[in-house]
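Instructor's aside before we start: the two examples that follow are unrelated to each other. I chose them only because their records fit on one page, so don't look for a connection. First example below.
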Amino acid sequence: MIRYRGVMIGTFLLVCGFLSADNSVEFVIQRNGWIEIGVFHESYELEFHVKVSAQTVEVKFPSAVSYIPMEYDSEEGHFDLDWIEENEFPTLSELFTAFGIENGECRLRIDKGLTTESIYRFSIDIDPISENAFPGFPAVTNPEEGQTVGSNVTFTWTNPDGYEDFVGPWTGVEQGDSYYDGGLFPAGTSEWSYGPLANGPALFEMGYGHIVDGIAEGMTWVSGKLIEWGLADHSPDGWLPGKPLTALFSDMDIHFQVQAAPKASISFGYFQTRTENSGDYDTYNVVVRVTIPNVHVVSVLLPSLPGIYQELDWISEDTYRIRFVYSSFVEMMTAIHSGTYRIHIYDQAFRESVYRFEVDSTPVQLDVFPDYVTDVQPPRNSLAEIPTTFSWSLSPGYAGTIGLVILKDAGFEMQMLPPNTTSAIVDAFEPAWNQLVLMTTKTASGVSGPMTWESGFEIDWDQTGSVPAGWPTDVPYTYLGSEWMGAYYAIEPGQCAFRLPGDLNEDCRVSLEDFVVMAEYWLMDCRGTSVSVDCWGFL
């Protein structure tokens, strides 16, 4: 197949008839269109191909001073004029002048590595080739020039007037070193879907072809080894053997950016939290948690605070969270009531996206929360060596997972323990005050509606892997939780939990050993400049 400016057109020329020949010549002029800063531009280029087994091939057009060397394209299997940027010209006449193309005789010089070279001539008549003979350009409606789209793209366009008289359209996408061929589309078709594409710049190409009859005469032997010239690789029915295929093409380029919709998940949790301060007391919380890669800011809009977005805190790689704390269940349900919630996201390019979901809070009642864990050992406000084994009891019938969270100065750690777990070894405490949270949860089915795109770039809301089996992939995972919270002062093995005045040897007790240390340094004076040499050991 032939590729003109990166567009594979061999597929659609099959409909005109196809016969492969060992030796063929193709004389193609392509008109290229593109949009730059809102302005349409066009240029012309020559694609001249010779398919022949040879070491070198050169071509001389009628008014050219000398032969032009051609390069072998191993991918396409033919010799061609090396396409470089300088071979594009703003007008057709400038292209003809640059290559010496006019009415008259063209010559091919072919060296097969023998003692003699073969020379062939053919005559051309360029009078039928004018700007008006080229097919028109399509109007691409999606994507527009410079637009950013998701990885799965549906390309749409409007065919030009008179397209029924031409071959095409053909389509393709070029991205880096990769090319995706859409092939030939039936007349009237104006849509092609392709994906997924990689993130980054890409080029959508499409166009139409016009096979021009009568421009080139057949190949005539001049000297050297005789070559049998067959039909061109892509020739319509009735094309004469030995006659170069001549065609005009119009190719439209649309540059666009691919930004794959990031996969994201969201959870929406109602909590009751029990802690101790001269007796048990409860608080009520709502936690919104969003996991999404490569973003800059995530915030949430509550119906109780219209117009005020609450920014989520970044807590770990790709994860953002916010916790709303209330002193009573009624206060929580007044603030977090039924209505429309919005998630507002800025990515790293500061593009904005807004999604909404509907919340029905009526299933959330105080008596539907799971029971707290009980009988936690060691109890709250205890000393805890590192590591420490904790145990607890579960209410009859609770078969859910246990969330174990450690809150400390350096952040927090969380792990989900299997159902029916009643003990765990905690080795992540810091040698200071820490908080241990043991959490029971249950799914609150039906609390949240699906995520609905409102504006900005697209996001693939995918809850898979983080929610119970059967949960809808586009619905925020909503659950009820009961958090038992206890405080512990953690110590390393052998470390003193408290500093005792008089514990000079730091063995966590005051004894005669400390008196021996005091006696050894009795009346030693380490003040001033004339001090005992023994003082230097305490620097």
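Example two begins here.
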Amino acid sequence: MRKILPIFLIGSILFSSEIKFKADYLRFERKKDTLNAKGNVKVEWEGKFIEADELFVDREKNEFEVRGNVFYKEGVLKIWADRILFNRDGEGRIFNAKVSYDKYFLKAEEIERVSKEEFILEKAYITTCDYPHPHYRLTSKRIFFYPEVKIVAYNMIFKVGKIPLFYFPYWWQSLKKRKWGFRIDIGKSRNQGYFFRSVIYYKITKNLKTSLLLDYFSEIASGGGIEVDYKSKNLKTNFWFYNIKNNRKMTFFLWQKIKRFNIQSNIEYYSSPNFNFNYFWEEKILYPVRVKSRFGISRNTSSSNFLLYYYREQESLNSSFRDVEVVKPGFNFYLFPRKFLFLNYSLKFVGSNRYHYSYGEYEKNLSSILNIYKNFSITGFLSFYPKLSYEYNFYDGNFRSYIFWNPNLRTRILRYYSFDLYQKYKEEIGRGEIYNKIGFSGILRFYKFMSLKNSIELDILNGFKNYRENFTPLLTRFDLRRGKLYLYLRNKYRIYPSRNLESELFYKYGIFGMDIFYYSSYPGKFDVINTLDFRIGKKWKFNLKIRYDILYRDLKTRNIWYKEISFIRDLHCWDMSFKMKERQDKKEFWIFFRIKAFPDKPIGVYYNRKDGRWSLKKK
């Protein structure tokens, strides 16, 4: 029969605390000042909870011990163990224990609770996998666990199953809302030698973050810099500075919204024109620009836009620099589709000015376009859609105006076939016609999963004389979708002189796909792309993509232009990805491990065969 002791009695027996206590069997010895409980023991006090097979309390020694299927809970901290021994101060030992804290799981042969704020785990590991035999783990002889603060370990080994993969002399994980972190890139390349690149960042507030950049290149020098970034709803700003071997780069960006106005400013400074290319492997600057500054203010509404834009640069010219300074105000006005009598119309007006102080130039640009249109339904299967447009442009003192006429007659024969007959006409007022084309496009549908489309145009600007030469290429497209099958055929054919210009065939069924291209404009170019995408069981995913030219012959490349192979292993709490890319100018591969509890922190190795660069990255 379950015994329940009054709260005040248990409180006097234990450590003068109010305790809720339940058990199947209770024995209290007043002389020895001890309590022994057995069978479905449950104790709750001060937000803590213990469940076990047996409990023993020694009030004289201020100790209590629980044994057998022990479960202890304190907030988000949960402990499963064979035996727990604690004193009144919270110190004690836990044997054969498993700990759950937030998204972390720890297991140890023995845990010493030094205080309420510190645990020391002996012969332990940590993981985020909740399986009895986790897919991955970080093992160490001693792990220091500080609830709500951090987890620290030395000589940590990362294992997948029983296979060790990475070694960390020091490992640290914050349990607080993280304010700081780091990214590293360690490796070697042919030009930079051994390198170590790192970014250490600290979040001062929710919106403000600072970063410290520390780099080392054995073949160049050491470098460093700083970045300050602020983001809020109405304000975004960024400052970035870097210095290496007396070469400097500085950028500043500001965007601010003040009521209905947007203000944007940007400044860039380079002490070396090839700074990005030499030190950051970015795209090389084609024109060596030393200083750039830009400023803009704009105001947007649903139907208009106003912009005032200013920029200044220094450009290289014969080993010297010249200033380029420009002010460019502009505005746009939109009149969305409206109705007038039985017609629809829309209007767009654009104006801009450009003041080039460097050369004393002034440009004035104005343009506008008015569209008038209407859709007439003649019968149930016949409709007519005419569109008349007027456009004028004023650019640098020159005025030009145009008229566009685009009528379209659409016919739908039954539910399977429809076609359009249309005209495209453009004339510059005062100078004559620019083009005059008539065209045809049709679509034939076979059931719900097949369709055939055709389109062609004829330029009749010079009449019908030598009309065959005035045809645009005939475009044909066939689509078929049925279950796992997708077939796509596209062809471009020139009427006169007769010649096939382009062809494409795409086929995919299940895991296999093929895309074939033919271009007559590039003699001998016949590209084929093969893809293979499938799963091996529930965990492995495999993808293969190869592009090659059937007619191209090269003993070195064996007519392969591109090859990509990737494996992805999904294992409940983590995944591993391997990818290899090979092109004529590059061959690289990388392998990454990503713990799903930390999706933004993959760990992996990268290698580029062309420049001999490899690196160990932690992003």
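The chain has a mean pLDDT of 83.
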